[in-house]
Every structure is written in structure tokens, then in C-alpha cells.
Amino acid sequence: MTDAQDTAADTSLRTTGGAPPEDGGSSVTEAPIPLLEPREGMPPVIADEAALADMVAAFAAGSGPVAVDAERASGYRYGQRAYLVQLRRQGAGTALIDPVACPDLSGLGAALADVEWVLHAATQDLPCLREIGMVPNGLFDTELAGRLAGFPRVGLGAMVESVLGFVLEKGHSAVDWSTRPLPEPWLRYAALDVELLVDLRDALEKELDRQGKLDWAHQEFDAIASAPPPEPRKDPWRRTSGMHKVRRRRQLGVVRELWETRDRIARRRDVSPGKVLSDAAIVEAALALPADAHALAALNGFGHRTGRRQLEQWQTAVDRAKALPETQLPQPGQALTGPPPPRAWADKDPAAAARLSAARAGVSALAERLNMPQENLITPDTVRRVCWEPPKVVDPETVGAALSGHGARPWQVEQVTPVLVAALSV
Fold first, then answer.
1. Where are the alpha helices (DSSP H) in 231-337?
2. pLDDT in tens, 213-233
3. Which among 402, 324, 417 has a CA at the least distance from the CA of 363?
4. Distance from C-alpha of 263 to C-alpha of 255, rounded to nearest angstrom
5. Contact assessment for residue 412 and residue 377, using Cβ atoms and an 8 Å cutoff
6. Given this model, what pLDDT does residue 170 score?
């Protein structure tokens, strides 16, 4: 039994509402226990400044790490803003905050800035939390911890079940969280998502320490917490699904015009762009280059439900692209800032292709020995860059410096450097 499983056998972590059982208990080898209610019952949704101030004071006076989660309305609303924030801390219980009614949570963020935040898949929630003023100085990511520890399934429900022996109800994960008022079953689901997050953190910390990976995890968590907000994506229209079918520059221009028109409408209406016009419809129009709205209406994605005014609006975007001079049309593909695609290496630089093949094999074997995904051991992009442009003198010092220059953490440099030194010497 691993330390993580041993922690799961501690029945003091288990509750289906109310106090934990005092008599013995079953271990994780027995049937998992459904988690039905928060320990202190359902908290009210905080939706005014007075209630928020009381909650901030309570959480500031709490102890230990704070579990944090956020719910977005992906697929329903424009952007990735938070529509519910959930927190739990020892001594303060669980809190549910409506960030629509309380859009500035910087006071809460400041009160908890120096507390360790426990999140699951932190990089998904940190951007929307940052928008409302919540930025941690330190964190523990239970999903990333699970990856480093070698768990085969790292979703929150799978981790809570395998490590702590509880079943989380996940039926409301994809609902429209911008709905007001939020139904009570949804709120219960959201509250339970933070119910055992700190317990999961404690169990995973023990398991990482047992495997000798705890310092590695802390380096990863520090990198996430200190990372600046990502730069705006250049030419985001190029990520339209199905773009690989579009080859001609005029057709690319149509994709760009339709994408930008859709984005403006979606932003104005605060709806998901896919609800305005599908990616498939954009690509269909780009390939067909319709002559008029009547021809456009015959294409997939522009059927009978599309009104005349909407058809004309999309056709106007198509016509704008068709009228552009050649010099203003987008170029095929994006400007490369790194190595070419690996499939082209054998022709462009056979020696680099051999280095990459050896490096991939070495990294794969090392990741298997360390029992973790290859991409968490070292990013594939870093391996490609070092193999395409290796140091002039290949030795542990120069290869380690190259890895660090591409953002590898010290533990990654230590583990991967010997593998890449061997691969670069082929």
C-alpha cells in the first residue's frame, strides 16, 4: 500500500455529510463512498459586499492551505470569465462566491496571497481568477502532482476516488454556469469539488515525498505561480478547426474575415463564438467562395435557420476577402519561430533527425523509469529545439544551459541532461 493509499484508509477524511465516522472504516480497496453533502452543510452564495467582507475575514483567520476552484461557462459565453468561485479552508469552512455580483475579489486575493492555494489543473483556473483580482504567491496543483506521481488517471473525480476512496458526482461539469439563479444541485456539486481538495493535497504530498519527487513538484508549482499572463495569441483565426483543408491565400482571407466578424458578434452578444457560427461553416464558405448570399445559404452551416440578414452579414465578410489585393491576403501557414516540423527533418538535416530520434527514445525510456508522462519530464518542444540547434560543444554543462535557456526547471535539467548529451553525440 502506498502512502497515498494509506492516507485514504484514514477514515477521518471520509464524510457523506456531518461528522466523520468514529468507528473503524473501510480502505480504498473496498467500494468507494459517494460524497453527498459538504461537511458543514450547503453554504449560501455570497452575492453582496457585506457578506464578502465577513467571508474574507473568516478565511484570513483560518489555518492551513486554502482549496480554490472556479466554474466558467465555456461553450456558452464569450471568453473564460469565472461565474462561481469556491473556496475551503480549515477554520472557515466552504464558501461559494458569485463573481458577477462581486466582480472585485482583490481583497480576498490579498488576504490569501501568502497562503498556499490548492487547485486542480491550476493553469485552467488561474487566468479567470486573475481577472477578478485573485493571484496566489504559492500553490499546490493536485492534477500535476498526480502526473508526477505516476497516477494513470488524474481528473479530480478519478484522483479523489483512487486516493481517498470517495466518489464525486460529476454530472454538472459542463453546464452553463452563467445561469442565474444557480440551481442547488449545481451549487452542491461545486461545493463538493473543494471538499476534499486539501486532503488530496496532503495524500499526494506524502506520495511524492515517498517517491523522491516532492522537490520536483515544488519547482513545477513555483513555475506556475510565477509565470506571467500569456501573450495574446497571434492570428488566432488560424486555429479554426479544419484549417488544414484551406490552402489558397484567397480562401485563407475568407477564413480570417469570417472569424473576425464572428468574434465581434460573439463579444458583443457575450456568447460562445461557436454558437454564432461553427468552425465547419467558416471552412465550408472559404473553400466554396460563394458568389452571393443565395449560394452561401446552400452550404453546410448556413441552412434554413440562418436568417436573410445573417446571411448577408456573412456574405459581406466573404466579399471583403474576395476584394482584397494580393498583398493583403494572409500567407499560408504561420511564420516559424523554431525548428521545422519533425517530419521534414530527414530531408532538411538528416543528422538533426538522427539526434531527435535518439533523444525521443532516451526521454521515453527515462520517463518510463520515473513513472511519469514524457511531457512532464521535459516538453517535446524543448527537445526539438535542442536537437535542431545543439551547443557547439556538447557536454553536460552546455546541454544543461541550453535546457535552462528553454525554461526547463533544475530537476528536469538534472534528469534529462545525460540523456540529451548521449543523443546529441550520435
1. 249-269, 273-276, 279-288, 293-297, 308-323
2. 999 999 999 999 999 988 888
3. 417
4. 12
5. yes
6. 76
Using alpha carbons, list the distances in angstroms from residue 288 to 243, 248, 284, 296: 14, 12, 6, 8
Q: What is the pTM of this model?
A: 0.89
- Find residue 68's DSSP bridge partners: 87
CB 211 within 8 A of CB 122: no
* Structure-block grid coordinates of residue 324: 482584397
Give the residue-averaged pLDDT of 380-391: 97
Cell 498556499, located at residue: 116
Give kind and range of the element (H or E) at residue 223. helix 214-226
Angle at alpha carbon of residue 214, lines to 211 and 219, rounded to 5°: 140
Residues 93 and 43: beta-carbon distance below 8 Å: yes
Residue 6 reports pLDDT greater than 80: no
> Which residue intervals of 61-178 are DSSP H helices?
106-111, 122-131, 142-149, 156-159
Place of cell 469570417: 258
Residue ranges in 93-210 assigned as alpha helix (H): 106-111, 122-131, 142-149, 156-159, 184-193, 197-210
Half-sphere exposure of 356 (CA within 13 A, CB side): 22
